[in-house]
Each structure stands twice: as C-alpha cells, then as structure tokens.
Amino acid sequence: MMPSYHMNRISSVFFIAFLIIHLYFLMNIMLAVVYEAFTRIEKDKFRKLLLHRRKACRLAFALLVTQKTPTKISFKHFEGLMQYYKPGATRLETYLMFKTLDTNRSGYLTLNEFYDIYEVCEFKWESKNTTEWFADIDNKWLKTFCRLVYRLVAHKWFDISVYAMIAISAVYQLIEAIVRSSSIDSYHLKLELIYATPLSLIFVSLYGLEACLKLIGFGLIQYFRRGWNRFDFAITCL
User: Fold this and answer.
1) What angle do CA 74, 77, 79 make, to 5 degrees?
2) pLDDT tens digits along 117-144
3) What is the rounded (10 degree) CA torsion for 154, 157, 161, 162?
4) Of the residues 4, 36, 85, 147, which has the fewest C-beta atoms closer than 10 A?
C-alpha cells in the first residue's frame, strides 16, 4: 500500500474501496450463508428430535393402553411408567404431572396430551404455603411481631436494601485492599486497621441481622428451602 501511495496518492482510493467491499460486503455475504446453513442444520436436528420423541410417545402409549380404554391412559398405568422413566419422582409429583397433562380433566390421558410428557417431566414442584408458620402461635404479641417481620422481609425494598448493603461492602473491601497495599508506614497501617475493624463488624452484624429476620419471618423450613438463603447463611456463619 505505502509504495503505491508514494507513487500515486489516488491509489489510496482503491485501498479504501477494497476494504469496504471486502469487509462490509463479502464478509456479510459469507456470514449470512454460514448463519443460514447453521439455522437449517438446527431446524433439521430439532425436527428429527421432535419426530423421534413423538414416535417414542406413540410406542409407549400403545403399551400403556388397555382393551377397556384403547385410546386413553389411566393414572395407574401412568404411575407405572414413571417408576421406570423417572424413578426419583414421588407419588405426589407423579400425580401432579398426570393432572398437568390431563388438560381435558377427564381423568385419562389421550395421545395428544401424552405428547407433552417430556416437557412436564422437567418441571420442578414446590409446595406453596397458604398460611405462615406462625399462624398457630397462641401468644398474640409474638404472632404480631412475627407477622410484622414477615411483611418486612417479604417486601421488595428489603431485598433491594440487602443488595445495596452487599454492594457497599464490596466497594469498601476493595478500597480497603487498595489502601493497605499502598500503605508502607506501619503507623498508618495500624491506624487504618483500627478504623477498619469496627466497619467490618458492622457489616457482619447487618448480615447476621438479615439472616435472623428472614428466619423469623419465613420460618426455619421455608428459609432453608431456598438455595440462595442456604448459601447466604453459610457465608454469614463463616
């Protein structure tokens, strides 16, 4: 490029035009072809997988029907299938999957309903408590206190405040690490440690207070049922 530009400056126009045509035109065409081929391959894979699943459903359906109900599957036979297909599922989970598939509420599964078994088997079931754990407490003042704490921890601004506290703590620890690494004088380092220790205790106390409030509001079982709460509690204890 440079020798040609030295001989004739108009050659730079050819260089710029080459870059525009090559990078923005030919490259886009190549990317479009690659994307179209990739999309076609993915569609074929999805179509084959879907057809394979539907064929498997038809074969399983033919084995589960009886002469009395040749077009429908009862819960008894569906439960027997789940013992082999998903042995870790409980009887309640199997019943919930059956009721989810039974969109017609007939008590039986047709072939069209049975086609969705793969998606339904991936569901995660969790019980939803209609009453709080402290509903059976006889002490009126204690029940009122627990209800107020529950409303506090269930409010969206409580989680926002916790996230803000975590962000402030992370920024503080970052600043503290930078200051300590830049402090060579032992006197200044001791002075920083004197002020840093109370702030660290404050953050740890706030984390502990958050865990205690959630334990009071949600209850022991509901609190530890969530993975994030278990992780948060373990980090706070450490």
Assistant:
1) 105
2) 988 988 888 766 656 777 777 888 888 8
3) 30
4) 36
